Fold:
Amino acid sequence: MLPEWVVSDIANEGVPVEIHVEPIQPEGYLVRLKGDLDLRTAGKLQQALDDLMSAVSVPIIVNLTEVPFMDSTGIAAFLRTRQANHHSGSRLIVVTPSRDLHRVLQITGVSDMLTLVGTEGEALAAL
Structure:
């Protein structure tokens, strides 16, 4: 399996943006994002997801618990990953405890294409 890694950057407001990737058992990856998922950071998330999918075909959980804001570039990253996962047979599960983020994914129709859950525990149980 790939080692745990972290990507950090500075957002426009000077707030650190972090992406933590760690293996989960029996197989799969958990990606935790902390900070805004926007034009500046969505590419970093996309790269992390692309790297995981190119290495292995396993479920990926993306936890958005610490994401206060997501724009259309964040949504696009999930749609690209979902399309690639669909072809490889992997699952993409997104943890969205925030009502605001969950609502954005519902309004845009993305909730019909992804598995959305409210907690990381629910995501792990869904594997």
